[in-house]
Amino acid sequence: MTVVGFVVHPDRPEATALAERARAWLHAGGHRTIEVVPPGDPGAPAVAEPVDLLVSLGGDGTMLRAVEVATPTGTPVLGVNLGRLGYLTEVEPAGLERALTGFLDGVHEVEERMTLSVTLTGPDGTVLDQRPALNEAVVEKTVPGHTVRVAVTIDGTPFVTYAADGLLVATPTGSTAYNLSARGPVVSPRLRAMVVTPVSPHMLFDRAMVLEPTQRLTLTILEPRPAVVVVDGSSVAVLAPGSTVTTTAGERSARLVTFGTRDFHAILRAKFHLADR
Fold first, then answer.
1. Span of 5-9, 80-84, 272-276 with lowest mean pLDDT
2. Which residues pair with 109 in a beta bridge?
């Protein structure tokens, strides 16, 4: 018997209906299902019991919440696209039962994706939060019309202080998310690297950098203004000057269920409507 958990977009009726259909199908086959509440959402605990597979029903945002739940335990995640872009998801709604059959029969692959370990520390050194990120961690301004000042240290060595609307640290998977909008590089998701990209920098040095995954990156919020920290699209905290955000490669990778080899460049062309002239 396989236990399958579902993370369902709360504002999409079609996601709820699809979850009910999938649950009925699984129950008929003798399997168990549970609903999983992502961290930060009100209601039940994130995971009431261990599951063999976590199914995300929504868009890329729902997928990110599912990965946050699944990564600490190494649970594989199957993404079903009910959003607009669906860059992270694997199957469309009509193919859900076929995908579940493939997983139950072992006719699938699990693609390992690098994550970030993101640690927030207050000015007094107290650890405020720690969480994984599949896409990115971002330090952003809180006051419109003003910049945030962020001092960057790499492996304990000071590098540069940014004055910008924000500064983001992305994984290769996240290189096609906010990083792409900020004109950062597109990185193959199977690589292991950290991409550091300033957002609307008010300085001459405005280039993105690609760092080794083993390096430790520390972002220190400087006077005079606080900054908000956003991890995988969720606001985590507003940090006072003197606080830090530290990122390095996560100890555990995200494990995404796939069926056959994913052609990254074909997906890139299709999702962003690229075509030859």
1. 272-276
2. 258
| pTM beyond cutoff 0.85 | yes
Q: How would DSSP label each residue in 155-166?
A: TTEEEEEEEEEE
Torsion angle (degrees, nearest 10) of CA 256, 73, 133, 16: 60
Judge contact between 193 and 175, C-beta under 8 A: no
**Model confidence at 88, in pLDDT bands (50, 70, 90)?**
confident
26 neighbors 52 (Cβ within 8 angstroms): no
Does 41 participate in catalysis according to the annotation?
Answer: no
Q: Which CATH superfamily is domain 3-113+253-271 in?
A: Probable inorganic polyphosphate/atp-NAD kinase; domain 1 (3.40.50.10330)
Which CATH number applies to 116-249?
A: 2.60.200.30
Active-site residue, selected from the candidate residues 60, 129, 165, 263? 60
Cis peptide before 38 (omega within 30 of 0): no
Judge whether 58 and 133 are in contact, CB under 8 Å.
Answer: no
